[in-house]
Design goal:
The chain contains 2 helices and 6 strands; from the N terminus they run βββαβββα. With 131 residues, it is of the alpha+beta class. It has one domain: Beta-Lactamase, CATH 3.30.450.50. Strand 2 and strand 3 form a beta hairpin. The longest helix has 17 residues.
Length: 131
């Protein structure tokens, strides 16, 4: 796993696919416990979902436990990037999400974020279009 202190910047226009989002209890001296989690495995085949789910769970717990309290960290594993913020403090909570940057197949000018967004219309890239 490669740890980067700066944010991951793809070289080509890309969209971001969020696979997992979770909140965990992360005490400094014991293993973390996932309190709530949401995953989207719809882009994987039925037979891959079990192993992908295990990977996300292991990846999450490992990254959360290795992030110091009060710190943010981005960890890249293959094409997946986990962004973690360990809040620490009295609550000892950590938030984590795993994303993958997908190349945009449309012309680059169509992949730029638009200033005004509508939740009903999609562009060919999957980004929201102007209202």
């Amino acid at each position: 796993m490669a740890v980067s202190s700066s944010s991951f910047q793809p070289r080509t226009p890309a969209i971001m696919k969020v696979y997992s989002l979770s909140i965990a209890h992360a005490p400094p001296s014991s293993p973390s416990t996932v309190l709530s989690s949401a995953v989207d495995l719809s882009s994987f085949s039925f037979y891959q979902r079990g192993s992908v789910s295990e990977f996300l769970t292991f990846f999450s717990k490992t990254v959360i436990e290795r992030t110091s309290q009060g710190q943010r960290q981005s960890v890249q594993e293959n094409n997946y990037t986990a962004h973690v913020y360990n809040r620490g403090g009295a609550e000892q909570l950590a938030g984590r999400f795993v994303v993958r940057f997908l190349p945009c197949i449309s012309p680059p000018h169509m992949c730029r974020p638009q200033p005004s967004l509508s939740l009903t219309k999609n562009t060919p890239c999957g980004l929201l279009s102007p209202s």
